[in-house]
Amino acid sequence: MNIAAVDYDGLIPNNVGLGQDVRVKHALEKWHPGYISWWNDMGPEGFQESLVYLRTAVSVDPKGWAKFDYVRMPEYRWGVLLAPAVPDRKIPFGRHKGEPAWQEVPGEYRALLRRLIVIQGDTEPASVEQQRHLGKTAPSLYDLRNLFQVNVEEGRHLWAMVYLLQKYFGADGREEAEALLQRRSGDADTPRMLGAFNEKTPDWLSFFMFTFFTDRDGKMQLEALAQSGFDPLSRTCRFMLTEEAHHMFVGETGVTRIIQKTCEAMKEAGISDPYDIAAIRKLGVIDLPTIQKKANLHFSLTLDLFGNEISTNAANAFHSGIKGRFREDRLKDDHLLESDTYPVLRLVDGKIENVDAPALSALNMRLRDDYVVDCNVGVGRWNKVIEGFGIPFQIKLPSVAFHRHIGEFQSVKADVDGNQLTEAQWAERQGDFLPSDSDREFIESLMQPETEVGKFASWIAPPKVGIDNKPGDFEYVKIA
Ligand SMILES: [Fe+2]
Ligand SMILES: [Fe+2]
Fold this sequence. Notes:
Layout: H1 22-42, E1 51-57, E2 66-72, H2 110-130, H3 141-168, H4 170-182, H5 204-226, H6 231-269, H7 277-282, H8 288-303, H9 312-319, E3 341-348, E4 351-358, H10 363-388, E5 413-414, E6 420-421, H11 423-433, H12 437-446, E7 477-478
Antiparallel strand pairs: 1-2, 1-7, 3-4, 5-6
This protein binds fe (ii) ion (FE2) (2 copies).
């Protein structure tokens, strides 16, 4: 079988030989109507009949796996796609290091694996739910198309996790697959599993920040799971990562284009002080301090997704060969970590200090550190744009102690530099760090849809290049 080619003949496109796997094929076909009804209820509101210029994976070959065409979203060919198997792959870390990678679920790690797959799976439909109202206020057809591309791919990521549950976890896998369609982002009774996925994505600046910061957490988790000794999970995540790259592109370039437009407008109006907020807002663009506040919010919410800095679960997942570190295969150490230490930021007598902890227990902290490094690369590119205009302002990631709800710093209030504040000081100053009601109202006032071909809302610059190299006047969405 040519593993790179995708079989598009059946109901479910796949490169896993579903045609020969009758039990799993039937299970997925049974799950399919529930998925479609979830998509119709909770997917992009108001655009289900529109023709969207989407890419679909036709091969998992890294070169040229995508084909672009106009598709109605409910007719998108969601499928099960795994990256090609690495011949003779070995478990790369933990106590089973060097043993052949598992092709079936190892019994002793079944519960742990299922839990990790369900948690990852739950985030995928959650983000579609969070973003379902954004179509109505899209700043251009180009952006509308990018939103929908992200949405259909998050839908496919749900399929990816559901395939693993259906194929490898029997009856309880089927139950989990059903439950993934039942939970709802932000629902009081049946919320999604993780906090950041129950927050609102009320406007497009939030959307771009979410895809920059929160999809990047997705990337880090997928990178860690792509190292897994359980080979089907590794191969699934490796292919998902190729899609995830586009989501972060959407986020990073979206914020870049907002910054670009703000700086251009300031220059044209002869405003050099980035804190002259009232004057800048009159130009119909978003002032840089407000962009910083949104970054503070989304960064801090996303840090919570990494869990407790010190974690036995994380240690177990590594030790058992189920979840590795970021790019484990490129790290040069013994991949066991049994006698190593890792510096962890902790709260010691009310002060933030670096404390050496056993490296195995500190794996969440380590992944979070890798995440922060990755974020800073993109933030650096935003700052280059501001610098290019000679405006004295820099976007900065806040301290990891700022605005936290999970881990070491959940019990304290801190400013963006990590200085601790009393409750009263926090109450007085939080509007300096996080979007206030009036900031939100201002952003909301800008969220007017722009649906004319080739046009963009006042507050965002056009992209440098079109999707699939299309010209500026390309009709990315034919609104029905
Ligand atoms: Fe995803
Ligand atoms: Fe994503």
